[in-house]
Amino acid sequence: MTTAKVLIPMSDYGHDPTETAVPYTEFKKAGFEVHFATEKGKTPECDKKMLKGITQKLLGATGLAVEAYNSMSTQPEFQNPLSWSSSDFSLDTYNLIFLPGGHEKGVRQLIDSHIMQRHIAAYFSSTMKPSKRSVAAVCHGVMVLSKTKDMEGKSVIHECDTTALPALFEQVAYWGTRAFLGDYYKTYGAASENVEEAVRKVLDNPDKQYKNSIGIGAFVIEDEKYNYISARFPGDAKLLAEKTVSLVQSTFV
């Protein structure tokens, strides 16, 4: 069986460690070949508030997720990422593009990158079933797709079923920590729209396509037309990874 190739694009700093390391671990366990990419090939770092100190203990990664991150961060593919701004960078050889989330403001480097948007726009159009290409995203990773436009100027996920970080979750985290963390939980600043709002507004029929759950149980949505899977927050990361592995493996049958 052909080995599946995975690319995980990241900002230099700020992605959620659980949403990055848990899927990475599952992809490696499945035998996938995993690469990372940052804007200029700099080794990325995930959000330290989710990894250390009181914020980690109260709000951040579990002990197992921290262990997974520490292991991932020592791997050569993580320490030596590709450069997405390089002239020879391409997504053509990958079977899966995985977009982790994170609310730290550094993740805007990936979300707002016109270069990555251009690459992903071309790639996403080739994930219509049946295809050997897939995309998975969680939390703010879905915003990369909501901001990426197709040739008609619509978001690449305009006709997809999707989920993302629920507005209720974002508001509770923001208002619950505002006194000591400021606007940390608002990636684009205190007055900016919620992730859910940013995603819903690009969908053709948001009331039908946007799938929401405010339960704590893992929640993952798989689109029927495209090889696209999405999830809400770190609690969904393992199920998202497992379903993504199954989807990618099914494309080789």
Give the secondary structure arrangement, pairings included.
Layout: E1 5-9, E2 13-15, H1 17-29, E3 33-38, E4 45-46, H2 53-59, H3 63-72, H4 76-79, E5 82-83, E6 96-99, H5 108-111, H6 114-124, E7 134-138, H7 141-147, H8 167-181, H9 195-200, H10 206-209, E8 220-222, E9 228-231, H11 237-250
Helix pairs in contact: 1-3, 1-11
Description:
This protein is of the alpha/beta class and 253 residues long. It has a single domain (5-157, 216-250), classed as Rossmann fold (3-Layer(aba) Sandwich). 38% of the residues lie in helices and 13% in strands. It has eleven helices and nine strands. The strands form two sheets. It has a seven-stranded mixed beta sheet, sandwiched between helices. Strands 2-4 form a two-stranded parallel sheet. The chain is globular and about 50 Å long. The termini are close together. The model has no long low-confidence stretch (mean pLDDT 95).
Describe, in short, the structure shown.
Pfam families: ThiJ_like. The protein is α/β, with parallel strands linked by helices. Helix content is 38%, strand content 13%.
Tell me how many strands there are.
Answer: 9
The tally of structural domains comes to: 1
Structural class: alpha/beta
Distance between the termini: 9 Å
- Report the average pLDDT across residues: 95
Portion in strands? 5-15%
**Radius of gyration from the alpha-carbon trace, in angstroms:** 17 Å
Shape: globular
Query: What is the CATH fold-level name?
Result: Rossmann fold
Q: Can you say what the CATH homologous superfamily is?
A: Class I glutamine amidotransferase (GATase) domain
Summarize the amount of helix as a percent range: 25-40%
